[in-house]
Write the structure tokens for this entry.
Amino acid sequence: MSLAILTSRALLGLHAPEVSVEVHLANGLPAYTLVGLPDVEVREARDRVRAALQTSQFEFPQRRITVNLAPADLPKEGGCFDLPIALGILAASSQIPAEALADYEFAGELSLTGELRPIRGALALARQVARHGRRLILPAANAPEAALVQGLTLLPARSLLEVAAHLCAHTPIQPYAGAPLQQPELHPDLADIRGQAQAKRALEVAAAGQHSLLLFGPPGTGKSMLARRLPGLLPPMEEAEALESAVIQSVEGSFHPERWALRPYRAPHHSASGPALVGGGSTPRPGEISLAHEGVLFLDELPEFDRRVLEALREPLECGHITISRAGRRADFPARFQLVAAMNPCPCGYHGHPDGRCRCTPDQVSRYRNKLSGPLLDRIDLMLEVPSLPPADLQQMPAGESSATVRARVTRCRSLQQARQGKPNARLEVKEIERWCLPDAAGAALLTRAIERLGLSARAYHRLLKVARTIADLAEAEQVGAPHVAEAIQSRRALPDGPGAPPPIRRS
């Protein structure tokens, strides 16, 4: 037979559209033509395939070889087409039976020795293959990752020879039966932090309602320590959440099976660019906000980030996803991350400190704070000062509650929200806020006075109600009351003022 057709898959965002690999052998001078919008990596497959076939003791046909990757308008990238192209050449030259190819999908990069190397995005490929009910043959190194998809018959192979022997019914490949590895969660314990009771409470509220949080205060007060402990307070991931988070990391090439169902924690440096944070590239790839999906994104030294980079966070914070558009390409990535940010009150970090060590001028402090726009701050639910503590208090204070104790309360609170409205409080829409978050008469009066005095926007008003609803849920109260509203207002403070300080940032 001079024509062979196999099925593989490309990567397009988080999706893995089907690709038909068509191999045709014709008479004429020996030539090798690869068509179907391949990128550089795919075009280089012809040299890898030729060497892999010859070192595996197969005959490389001295004929005119045409390989078509259909559909022709779908961009193809990566080395995952090496294996199906090699098998197509073998089937078209009658070295393996072509009829055995129909029940499988193939993906794998070939080394020059014929060994199969792992590919990027195996989990995304496996999820699509399982929906179509086919069996998947891919490198053995990707098997623990792809096995996380339920209902998939997975055949791991180590070399081209193993795949050929299986298709010839000589030595069948046994389906993968390994269980995913899971290491104990290694997030640091909240009990390590002495004092800072108000900040710990804000951290618990943020975890219970999936709220965003801004911590500000002088250096060394524990802002970064608090942020690193937030993932340990979050409830366990559900199956669908864990799979979606793992698929994003698989597409980016950073997924490890032992991290299955563990909340991601991403902390990019303040020099990160816009594409690094929100995603981008000529071929769209997920950024830090998508890699933190269903987990925590920590931005330390928030004003040190480029202002344009921070402004790119506004839409994902509001809608929970990001759309990256390029010429001829578009990709959608989920980005339901929990933002935790930390900042100093001024460039030197000691503005308003009791010992008066700050030497920043009011103009320097104003410029530093105004790097954060009003619309961005408007989208942050909780803003709290983390003050410095006297050394004597640090030595005398006992250890606080452990992360496990707080996580138990957070999990109960999240379960209550899931039963009531099917989502965390931070993701409630306007109509849902009006249904579930309106306070009683005393709470409404307090809220009205706060809006008039603080000049809150409509968005800030709604976020204040959602935080109050979370505080009421932690107290297991059916209706939001005045104490819950008061705590929510206290947890949404402007940046602190000290002697000679400029006025707080105005929110728009």
Summary: The radius of gyration is 28 Å.
